[in-house]
Specification:
The chain has 26 helices and 28 strands. Helix 10 packs across helix 12.
Length: 705
C-alpha cells in the first residue's frame, strides 16, 4: 500500500544501545496526552500470549496500527514490566479487521465505530487508500455528505502530517522525545527549521540547549564556521555565565570560552559579536577593565535598576514625623520589648530614608525590626506592602509580623495577555511603604521589575542577609547596593540573648567570620549535630535511617513535612538525584503511585517548582505535595500552600522531587530540621557562603553529615 511509511534510518547513538525490538498491533491506548504526545498503550505481539505495555512519546499512534518499536524494558513499581520506546515507526493496517479498529478508534474526526464498519464494508482493504488519495469517493457511503467529507479530510491530513514529520525528524537523527518537542514548537515547519538553522531550537525550545542543537548541526554537516553557529555559541556562553550569576562578562572571557567550546580559531568571533550588537541582541560597554558584554535584557535591567533607584532617591517623599525617638520608644513600649541601639537606629531610619537596606545574620532581630516598622507606619496611617521572593518566605514573614505578606511576583500581578507585570510606572503599587524580605534572593531582573512598580513617593526598605548565597539568577543585587555607598545601610551585628542559646545561630556567625564551628557529635540538648561519615554508601544508609526512624522518634518530626535534606550537588551517590530516589522509596513507598509523563510519583511526594510559572502563580523554589492525578489529560495535581495546581505531562520539566534539594534552591525557605550533606566529594563547591546558607535553613535542628 502507498500508506506504508518508510522506516527512518536508525540514529547512531540509538543503534549503539542494547535495545529490545518489538513489532505488533496497538490493541488499546490506555492514556495519551495530545500536547506532549506521551502515551501508554498495549501492543499485541505475535507469538506472545499477553499484550506488552509500551510507554513513551508516541505521536499520533492509534488503535489497530502496526508498530515497529525499539526500547528498554523497565519495571514500574505498580504496573510491572513495560517497554519504554526510544525509537519507532508505524505502518498503517492492511487487513479488514485492522483497518476497522484503526478507524473506529476516534482518531479521524467524523468517523466513529459505526461509520468505520460502513466504510470497510464498502471499500474493504482499499479503505485507507481511498481516504488518502480518492477522498471524494467517500460520498458513495450513506451518511457522508460534503460537510462530513471535509471534516474527515482535515483530520486525516493532520494525522498524516504529524506522522510524516515525526518520521522525518527521526530520520535526521533526532531522538523521539526531542522530535516531539520540535514538532510541538514548529508544527509543519519543523523539518525546515531543523535543516536550515538547528540553533534556532535552542532559542525557542525550553530545555533544549546549544550543545544539543550543535550535535544536530554536526549530523546535518553544517559549516562549523556558519554565522548561526558562531552567534549561538556566543549567546550560549553568555547564558552559561548568567547561570553562574554574572550580569555581564569581559569580552576576552566570552571569546575564550566560545572558542574552546566551538573548537575554532578566535578570529571569526569578533565579527559575529559585532553583528549581535548591531542586531540589538547584546550590548558591549567600555568598562575600566576592558570591554564587557551583556545580553540586551541584562543590560536593560542593570541600567534600569541604577536609573530608577536614583530617581526614587531624588523624588520627594512623605515628611518624616517629628519626635522620631519618641515614636520608636512608644512602639517598644506597646510591644513590651527593648530594642538595642542598632535596632532602634534601623527603625528610625525606616521613617527617614527613601531607600533603606537592613542586613544581618540569624538572631540579630531583622524580623523584630520589620514588625516595629510596620507598627509605626500603621500608626501613621500609611499603607505598607510586605513581600518576599518565594511563597514560603512570604508566608514566614506574614506569620512573624501578623500582617499579610505576598510574593514579589504576585504583588506585581503578572498579565497573561501582555506576558509582563501589570504593576509598572503608569500603574504602580498602591502603597506608601514597600518592605522586601530575603532581598539576597532577588536577581537583577526581578529588582528591575520591582523598582518599575514602586511609586516615586514611596519608601523602599530592603531586608536581607548579605552573607547568604546570591540569587540563583544574574546579579548580586543586595551586596552591590550595599557596596554602592549610595544607600543608607543598617548593619545588625549583635546576637540577642535567646538566639545565643542556639548553636545553629552561633555556628552560622562563626562560619561567617571564618571561625571553626562548634560540632557536637551526639544528639541531646543541642540543636546542631555533626556526624562524621567518610564513605558515601555508609552516609546514605545513615541519612535514610535518620529520616525514616531516628529523628521522627527522637524529636517527633514528620519525615515528609519537617525534615529537609540539602546537598550542594545534583549527581553522584550523595547528589540530590540519587538521594531523592532513595528517600522516595524509603519514606513514601506504600502510597498510591502514578506514572506521569514517564516518571513515578506517589501521593504525598514532596516536589519543587523549577522555574517561574506566572500563569499558575507558582515560582522557582516553591515546594508542594503531590495529591493525585486527574483531568482528561492525566494531570498531576500538586498542593502548593493550600492551592491545588494541575500540571500537564508537557510541563514535566517544571517539577522535580524535593526530598533532597540543592543549597541554592533552599534559599528563602526555612525548615524545622535540615540534614546538610557535605563531604570531600563536594570540595569544589564548599564555599563559606554555601555552608552558611545551608546551616541557616534549619530552625530547630541542623545535622551536618
Amino acid at each position: 500500500m502507498t500508506l506504508a511509511l518508510t522506516p527512518p534510518p536508525l540514529p547512531p547513538e540509538i543503534a549503539a544501545q542494547p535495545l529490545e525490538t518489538l513489532e505488533g498491533t496497538v490493541e488499546r491506548i490506555t492514556f495519551a496526552d495530545p500536547e506532549s504526545h506521551y502515551a501508554v498503550l498495549r501492543l499485541k505481539v505475535k507469538g506472545r500470549r499477553l499484550p506488552v505495555t509500551v510507554v513513551g512519546a508516541l505521536a499520533a499512534v492509534s488503535e489497530g496500527e502496526q508498530l515497529h518499536i525499539k526500547g528498554k524494558y523497565e519495571v514500574h513499581p505498580r504496573y510491572g514490566e513495560q517497554l519504554r520506546a526510544v525509537w519507532w515507526y508505524a505502518v498503517l493496517p492492511a487487513t479488514v479487521a485492522g483497518i476497522t479498529k484503526y478507524l473506529a478508534s476516534g482518531l479521524v474526526k467524523g468517523i466513529g465505530p459505526e461509520m468505520a464498519q460502513r466504510l470497510v464494508a464498502h471499500f474493504g482493504t482499499e479503505t485507507l487508500e481511498v481516504i488518502d488519495n480518492h477522498r471524494e469517493r467517500l460520498l458513495e457511503v450513506p451518511g457522508i455528505g460534503p460537510k462530513r467529507l471535509e471534516q474527515i479530510g482535515a483530520a486525516w491530513q493532520g494525522q498524516k502530517e504529524v506522522r510524516e514529520i515525526m518520521v522525518s525528524l527521526q530520520g535526521l537523527g533526532v531522538s523521539l522525545g526531542l522530535a516531539t518537542k520540535i514538532y510541538q514548537t514548529y508544527g509543519v515547519k519543523a523539518v525546515e527549521v531543523l535543516t536550515t538553522n538547528p540553533y534556532q531550537l535552542a532559542l525557542d525550545i525550553q530545555g533544549l540547549g546549544f550543545l544539543t542543537a550543535d550535535r544536530l548541526a554536526s549530523r546535518l554537516n553544517l559549516d562549523p564556521l556558519a554565522p548561526a553557529r558562531l552567534a549561538a555559541g556566543l549567546l550560549h556562553v553568555l547564558d552559561t555565565l548568567a547561570g553562574e550569576g554574572h550580569v555581564y562578562a569581559p569580552q576576552e572571557k566570552v571569546f575564550q570560552q566560545t572558542q574552546e567550546m566551538l573548537r575554532i580559531a578566535p578570529e571569526p568571533l569578533a565579527g559575529s559579536l559585532k553583528r549581535l550588537e548591531q542586531e540589538g541582541r547584546v550590548v558591549i560597554e567600555e568598562l575600566p577593565d576592558g570591554p564587557g558584554v551583556y545580553k540586551r535584557g541584562a543590560w536593560a535591567a542593570e541600567t534600569g535598576v541604577a536609573r530608577m533607584l536614583g530617581a526614587l532617591l531624588a523624588a520627594p517623599g512623605a515628611t518624616p514625623p517629628l519626635h522620631l525617638d519618641g515614636l520608636v520608644g512608644l512602639v517598644q513600649k506597646n510591644r513590651g520589648l527593648e530594642l538595642a541601639p542598632e535596632q532602634a537606629a534601623a527603625v528610625a531610619a525606616a521613617l527617614k530614608e527613601k531607600v533603606l537596606v537592613i542586613t544581618g545574620g540569624p538572631g540579630t532581630g531583622k524580623t523584630t525590626i520589620v514588625s516595629c516598622i510596620l507598627d509605626l507606619y500603621r500608626g501613621l496611617g500609611s499603607k505598607v506592602l510586605l513581600m518576599a521572593p518565594t511563597g514560603r518566605a512570604a508566608k514566614r514573614l506574614g506569620e512573624a509580623t501578623g500582617a499579610e505578606a505576598t510574593t514579589i511576583h504576585r504583588a506585581l500581578e503578572f498579565s497573561p495577555q501582555t506576558g509582563g507585570f501589570k504593576r509598572c510606572p503608569t500603574d504602580p503599587l498602591k502603597a506608601q511603604v514597600v518592605v522586601v524580605d530575603e532581598t539576597s534572593m532577588v536577581d537583577i531582573y526581578l529588582m528591575h521589575h520591582l523598582l518599575r512598580a514602586v511609586p516615586a513617593s514611596a519608601r523602599l526598605i530592603l531586608v536581607g542577609d548579605a552573607h547568604q548565597l546570591p540569587a540563583v539568577g544574574p546579579g548580586n543585587v543586595l551586596k552591590d547596593l550595599m557596596a554602592s555607598e549610595v544607600l543608607k545601610v543598617c548593619r545588625l551585628t549583635q546576637i540577642y540573648r535567646q538566639a545565643r542559646e542556639s548553636l545553629i545561630v552561633v555556628n552560622a556567625h562563626r562560619i561567617n567570620q571564618g571561625e571553626y564551628p562548634v560540632l557536637p557529635k551526639y544528639f541531646g540538648k543541642t540543636d546542631f549535630v555533626f556526624l562524621e561519615l567518610d564513605e558515601p554508601l555508609a552516609l546514605q544508609r545513615r541519612l535514610l535511617d535518620l529520616m525514616a526512624n531516628e529523628l521522627p522518634r527522637r524529636y517527633g518530626f514528620n519525615p515528609l513535612k519537617d525534615l529537609q535534606v540539602i546537598s550542594p550537588m545534583h549527581r553522584g551517590p550523595l547528589g540530590i538525584q540519587t538521594l531523592n530516589h532513595l528517600l522516595q522509596e524509603r519514606l513514601n513507598a506504600k502510597s498510591e503511585t502514578w506514572t506521569w509523563a514517564g516518571r513515578t510519583f506517589r501521593r504525598g511526594d514532596k516536589v519543587m517548582q523549577l522555574r517561574n510559572n506566572y500563569l499558575k502563580e507558582v515560582f522557582n523554589g516553591d515546594i508542594g505535595q503531590v495529591v493525585g492525578v486527574g483531568g482528561d489529560n492525566g494531570q498531576l495535581l500538586i498542593n502548593f500552600e493550600g492551592r491545588v495546581i494541575p500540571y500537564d505531562p508537557g510541563e514535566r520539566e517544571e517539577i522535580t522531587l524535593a526530598y533532597a534539594i540543592t543549597v541554592h534552591k533552599s534559599q528563602g525557605n526555612e525548615f524545622p530540621a535540615v540534614l546538610l550533606v557535605l563531604t570531600t566529594q563536594h570540595y569544589l563547591l564548599l564555599q563559606r557562603n554555601l555552608l552558611y546558607t545551608g546551616v541557616t535553613r534549619g530552625r530547630r535542628l541542623v545535622v551536618l553529615l
